[in-house]
Design a protein that fits this description.
By secondary structure, chain A is mainly β. Helix content of chain A is 0%, strand content 55%. Chain B is an all-beta fold and 116 residues long. In chain B, a hairpin with a 6-residue loop joins strand 7 and strand 8. Classes of the chains: A mainly beta (110), B mainly beta (116).
Chain lengths: 110, 116
């Protein structure tokens, strides 16, 4: 069945450093979504990418969708303590099924 | 508050008991999803509804699990004869599916289940 893999599983960065998480799907996706979950909280939608090669920015966050629509990345520039949490990608296939990755847990060192 | 709500927020039960959780989606949303999340894992799909129709159930969903959305609004998830392995956070999400575009899921706060 469809699988969505996310790496790394954990990332510790010094405050101010950049951070990137990668998402790979075993099948071609119709779209990919990114969510952030703070410790003790629930997933909160960040963005959706639909087009091949699409790049979207939200302040310090840059999201990319691969040309083959099978991979995606989230890059955070100059991390801040408020960026702490787990970042999930969720791939939706043509059958509308949504599969979440296991997430990348970001920890910021002050 | 017009977000997704879930009740109860916490549930402790003894093994073998039945539990029922409720999810109230955002009112205009036609899709409602149930997920299970354990520590260090992503949300794991269980089932989803479009209006009152249950369109898909995960193979992970045993016969002890049943979900309903009788009027296409709120939904309930029942677990019969709970087992310790059922302990997890149960998340509900709703979305508005229109046309062929993607959909944004809005998650509720979850119900944390502990089976003793």
């Amino acid at each position: 069945g469809q699988q969505v893999m996310q790496i790394p599983q954990y990332q510790h960065v010094q405050e101010g450093e950049d951070f990137t998480t990668y998402c790979n799907s075993s099948t071609t996706l119709s779209n990919i979504q990114w969510y952030k979950q703070r410790p003790g909280g629930h997933p909160v939608f960040l963005i959706q990418l639909v087009k091949s090669g699409e790049v979207k920015k939200q302040k310090r966050l840059t999201f990319q969708f691969g040309e083959a629509k099978k991979n995606s990345s989230l890059h955070i520039t100059a991390t801040q303590t408020t960026d702490v949490g787990t970042y999930f990608c969720a791939g939706q296939n043509r059958d509308d099924k949504i599969i979440f990755g296991k997430g990348t847990r970001l920890h910021i060192l002050p | 508050d017009t977000g997704v709500s879930q009740n109860p927020r916490h549930k402790i039960t003894k093994r073998g008991q039945n539990v029922t959780f409720r999810c109230d989606p955002i009112s205009e949303h036609n899709r409602l999803y149930w997920y299970r999340q354990t520590l260090g894992q992503g949300p794991e799909f269980l089932t989803y509804f479009q209006n009152e129709a249950q369109l898909e159930k995960s193979r992970l969903l045993s016969d002890r699990f049943s979900a309903e959305r009788p009027k296409g609004s709120f939904s309930t998830l029942e677990i019969q004869r709970t087992e310790q392995g059922d302990s997890a956070m149960y998340l509900c999400a709703s979305s508005l599916r229109a046309g062929t575009g993607g959909e944004t899921q809005y998650f509720g706060p979850g119900t944390r289940l502990l089976v003793l």
